[in-house]
Amino acid sequence: MRTVYVNGSWVSEDQAVISVFDRGFLMADAVYEVTTVIDGKLVDFAGHIARLDRSLGELDMPSPATPEELLDLHREIVAKNGITDGRVYLQVTRGNPGDRDFLFPDPKVTRPTLVLFTQITGRPEDSADAKRGLKILTIPDVRWGRRDIKTTQLLYPSMGKMMAKKAGCDDAWFIEDGLVTEGTSNNAWIVKGGKLITRGLSNDILHGITRAAVMRYAAEAQMEVEERSFTLDEAQAADEAFVTSASAFVMPVVEIDGARLGDGKPGRVAARLREIYLDESRKSGV
Ligand code: PDD
């Protein structure tokens, strides 16, 4: 049984309690972060906490703890649960105002709810998905207009993953105005003529922490990166494609809406970037 963190207490997962009036539960009035743990170390922690702060600020939600306190909590939960390869999930909600009300409660009276739990994954090198590559289904992007805020409104991404599964695919990419926005829970990339292409940052996509890291590593490895939108046709005609996220790292894509990319096997650029990302994450984990 895992030990989880709820509002200042360490409790067994079967003892953890959140109010039925919590705005995270009633209104999805909540933001979250997922931080990878590799070899017992937190990957890109500073980036995740900076984005958490931004998400909270955009929603006028008070911060439940300082970055230093959050780092201590992350380290403590990793140690308590003996995590070597896995994730720390953190969620902040606007708290429990004691009743259902659309209006935000006074933050001086209603304190935010803070929850952390861990998940165990395998060693990244053992990922079967990374060896096989993902098959992607595209679906319309009908999410709200502030996808840059990492809220827990994940119903449509969940529906997208179910649509992909029903279609015999592994995941879905969202399309808006004929252009790929991002994956259900990751940023989308294509490779053409040795150049990496990924959509530029705006309110239309989540500003991925892994995306930013991969951009840095690609530049260091003298790979050219172009930040621009791309169409489905362009993606289907690409040499390679991949997705990035804290849970998938760099994950090759081998098929989009039934169109095979290259020889249908994970591409060399994606494999190289995955290797670099894992190496660098091992070096820089905290
Ligand atoms: N998802 N885009 C969306 C819509 C996401 O949900 C995520 C992350 C990303 C990638 O962001 P990052 O590289 O910072 O993980 C892009 C997390 C992993 C999740 O919901 O589990």
Key attributes of the depicted protein:
D-amino Acid Aminotransferase, Chain A, domain 1, globular, six-stranded antiparallel beta sheet, 29% helix, 286 residues, binds N-(5'-phosphopyridoxyl)-D-alanine, alpha+beta, D-amino Acid Aminotransferase, Chain A, domain 2, nine-stranded mixed beta sheet
Which percent bin holds the helix content? 25-40%
Number of strands: 15
What share of the residues does DSSP label as strand, in percent?
25-35%
- How would you classify the helix and strand content by structural class? alpha+beta
CATH topology of the largest domain: D-amino Acid Aminotransferase, Chain A, domain 2
CATH class of the largest domain: Alpha Beta
Q: How far is it from the N-terminal to the C-terminal residue, by CA?
A: 25 Å
Number of domains: 2
Give me the secondary-structure topology.
Layout: E1 3-6, E2 9-12, H1 23-27, E3 30-38, E4 41-42, H2 45-58, H3 67-80, E5 86-93, E6 113-120, H4 128-132, E7 134-140, H5 155-166, E8 171-176, E9 179-183, E10 187-192, E11 195-198, H6 209-220, E12 225-227, H7 232-236, E13 240-245, E14 249-256, E15 259-260, H8 268-284
Parallel strand pairs: 7-8, 7-14, 11-12
Antiparallel strand pairs: 1-2, 1-6, 3-4, 3-5, 5-6, 8-9, 10-11, 10-13, 13-14, 14-15
Helix pairs in contact: 6-8
The chain binds N-(5'-phosphopyridoxyl)-D-alanine (PDD).
